[in-house]
From TrEMBL:
Species per Swiss-Prot/TrEMBL record: Candidatus Nanosynbacter featherlites
InterPro entries: CMP_dCMP_dom, Cytidine_deaminase-like
Molecular function in Gene Ontology: catalytic activity
Domain of life: Bacteria
Matching Pfam families: dCMP_cyt_deam_1
PANTHER family: CYTOSINE DEAMINASE FAMILY MEMBER (PTHR11079), RIBOFLAVIN BIOSYNTHESIS PROTEIN PYRD, CHLOROPLASTIC (PTHR11079:SF162)
UniProt protein name: Nucleoside deaminase
Domain CMP/dCMP-type deaminase: 4-111
Length: 177
């Protein structure tokens, strides 16, 4: 469960997602915190940079080897369930806790994280923790975006949640260790 502390950090991630909209991107943002202090902020850059330019992946790449010295106390807050690539980057970086706002339609990496957690006992993933706020951001994005690929992604994400949200939302917390 998120406490007030975590909620504030998720709010920062939501801010990064709002910034992504301003840059013509889907509203996906993230924050990495160590001992409650923000050490990096990321937002998606897929529209301008291509498929690997996700906020989490770019953030970890940007931190480079510095991440290893703080990873055991680092917590990732991401507005959307991190994808397989980004969960993989988090695992390699040694991040031990992830909170995400909304489940991803496809390509969500939760299962990979769960497998890793089962093997190593090191990773905890909680989500969805900010579903309605993230839905609103995607709806806002759809009213202003002209990026066909981005629009398609946002629409499929929202359609999925219209259908399955009730079931998914019951699984608020998913500890695997
Ligand atoms: Zn990703």
């Amino acid at each position: 469960m998120m406490d007030e502390y975590d909620s504030r950090l998720m709010e920062r991630a939501l801010g990064a997602a709002r910034s992504a909209i301003q840059n013509g991107e889907n509203p996906i943002g993230c924050v990495l915190a160590v001992d409650g202090k923000v050490v990096a902020i990321g937002e998606t850059r897929v529209a301008c940079g291509g498929p690997a330019c996700h906020g989490e992946n770019s953030m970890i790449e940007c931190l480079g080897h510095r991440i290893w010295s703080v990873a055991s106390n680092a917590v990732l807050y991401s507005t959307l369930e991190p994808c397989l690539m980004c969960i993989g980057a988090c695992i390699n970086a040694g991040i031990t806790k992830i909170y995400y706002g909304m489940d991803a339609v496809d390509g969500g990496g939760y299962a990979l994280g769960a497998i890793n957690a089962g093997l190593t006992n090191k990773l905890i993933i909680h989500g969805p923790t900010a579903h309605s706020q993230v839905v609103r951001l995607f709806q806002e994005y759809l009213t202003i975006s002209r990026n066909e690929g981005g629009i398609q992604y946002a629409r499929s994400l929202l359609a999925f949640h219209d259908t399955f949200h009730c079931k998914i939302n019951k699984t608020y917390c998913k500890p695997y260790i």
